[in-house]
Amino acid sequence: MDAYSILEIVRNIVYSGVLLIALVYSCLILLISRFRHQNNMFILNLCVNTMTTCIYFIIYFYAIYYDMPQSMCILFNYAFNIASIQIPFAFVAFTVHRFCVIVYHTKALFKTKQWVVICILTQWIAQFVISLPFVFEYYDDCTSNTVWMGFYTLITAVILPSSINMILNICIFIHVRKSSLRVHPRRLNTITNGINHQQSRISRRDISLLKQMIFTFTMFIIGWTPALVINTVDVMIFVNFDVQMASVYLSVICLLAVIINLFIYNHEIRRYLFDSIRRCFHC
């Protein structure tokens, strides 16, 4: 067995590890009712997107060695773009949700389960629609790529979601800053006015969660971007195979780091899982 085969096995083991962690995370949220609140439903959505991405790329690195008919190549490349964009789009769905909940806190709709469903469903529809141009492309073989396809995936997987996230997060922090400035003078008038709405609207937990998701999204983009850039550049100029593989492994490792980070940050689920494991050993 050569070094490349060993690296392929290691890569698929890491993908399988990410898949397993995301599956366990998803089951905990789905099966235990107290974990099924709004924020965890978006984490569940992120886990589902992560699992489908892992499944696709595990299949992808085996399927590229086989000849497929044109219809399968179309489906194969269509699924490639979906797998590339669905995790960053899941982060965008969460950011849109938090933006509406924090900035438009007086609107009852944004506090309902229906709004969570709308955000998540819109994200899934968007990623399927945005990837449609790949359906109308002709492929000489399933591994062939064109410059526009590479740029399109790079834009939709990195530039577009990063821009939306950045704009919405800036708006959120501007709103939070203005709200905190309004709170201080109102405290002086609390006795006479009897009202201080802003103080209870934005909790430290909200801001902490938002910062954590920004950090996680940034970590994902840092890991995902080199592979997509090389996927695009390789069409125009030759890129050393070792460099290509290094970018792939960086994306896999960052994906593992993202899912572990989300688990570590979720104190409620982490505590429940560790307590359950401890009880099992004591038995």
Walk me through this protein's architecture.
By secondary structure, the protein is an all-alpha fold. It has a single domain, classed as Rhopdopsin 7-helix transmembrane proteins (Up-down Bundle), CATH 1.20.1070. 82% of the residues lie in helices and 0% in strands. It is globular and about 60 Å long. The two termini are 43 Å apart. About 4% of the residues have low confidence. It is a multi-pass membrane protein. It holds the Pfam family 7tm_1.
Secondary-structure content class: mainly alpha
What fold name stands as the CATH topology? Rhopdopsin 7-helix transmembrane proteins
Strand content range: under 5%
Largest sheet: none
CATH class call: Mainly Alpha
Model regions low in confidence, pLDDT < 50 over at least 5 residues: 190-200
CATH architecture: Up-down Bundle
Global outline: globular
User: What is the count of structural domains?
Assistant: 1
Q: What's the alpha carbon Rg, rounded to whole Å?
A: 22 Å
Instruction: Write the CATH homologous superfamily.
Output: Rhodopsin 7-helix transmembrane proteins
Rounded mean pLDDT score: 83
Count of beta strands:
0
* Series of H and E elements: HHHHHHHHHH
Straight-line N-to-C gap: 43 Å
State the share of residues found in helices, binned by percent.
Answer: over 70%
Count of helical regions: 10
Briefly, what is this?
With about 280 residues, this protein is mainly alpha-helical. Helices cover about 80% and strands about 0% of the residues.
List keywords for this structure.
283 residues, mainly alpha, Rhopdopsin 7-helix transmembrane proteins, 82% helix
